[in-house]
Write a structure and sequence with these properties.
Tachylectin-2, Chain A, Jelly Rolls, 2 domains, six-stranded antiparallel sheet, four-stranded antiparallel sheet, 46% strand
Amino acid sequence: MGPSGVLGVFLDTNPDAKEEERFKAVGIRREDKELVVVALASHDGKDWSVIQDPILTEGPFDTRNIPFWDEVRGEYVIYTRAVAGEGSFIGGVRWIRRTTSKDFRNWTAFESITAGDTPFEHLYTNACVPYERAPGTYLMFPSRFVPERTPDPDWYGGNGISDIVFMSSRDGINFDRSFMEAFVRPGPDKANWHERAIYMERGIHQTSPTEISLYGTEGLRTRSVKIRRYTVRTDGFVSVNAGASGGEFTTYPMIFSGDSLELNYSTSAVGSVKVEIQDAAGVALPKYSLADCPDHFGDKIEGKVRWHGGDSLIGLSGKPVRLRFALTDADLYAFRFRA
């Protein structure tokens, strides 16, 4: 029996990939009573062949199995549902695990992701993607399943409701769940208020200089099922926010390369963002204190920070520094150093 089920397809950017395997995918097929994962490849994305069958046998695999080439790690990865050896779940809930491979044929033992000391919730599917604008950062948009809530007693499916949450990681295994709130709520459409109604599809697309788009499925298992486009500000998944009374925060020490600092921020007409550069001990550096920094206001994706002495950071690159931010009625979404 050939591969079946939803294919997880990607363009292989591995520089050593064979031309006839430039597109790769994983699919599932049934073997006896269990599902197994098979590897496929194509030279053009249209004509496919099985290159290894099976590659993974320790299910469950009844979900979206997400493969991609990890340029930072220099290997292939697959994210899928929790390991069968612990039941179907981790800590009594649905969970997510990862396996890796150098050749897309031989895979390591599964390793479950972690989410710090946050409470376990049913996380069903994952939509994991390395974020191209911040190499080494992994973003995940699992569908959160809440089985004990069923708002529509006439729903013909199972119990529960779902929304979509946001997680991030620096290594692809240890994920930050600082934001326990929903990233996408079911909203006013009644067709989204049942179990497994909404899922995020994999992919983050730059659709304008100031906008990125993600795509999801809504109203699944109803006659009104649809593909929805969600848009957010570029790098705008989360922000540090201060109200009219203002607020401050200081980063951990960091070592940077480059000669200028850029901010992604938005303020009101009376709001502002100011930056102070400190040494590793937290002492303001001469010419880079808050007093030396004028108010930065407006709405910019790549707003260059300037001090009264200019915007150059020549001489600070390669040394440990802290950044102290002072915000008033403003959101700070991201910062980066650039040459």
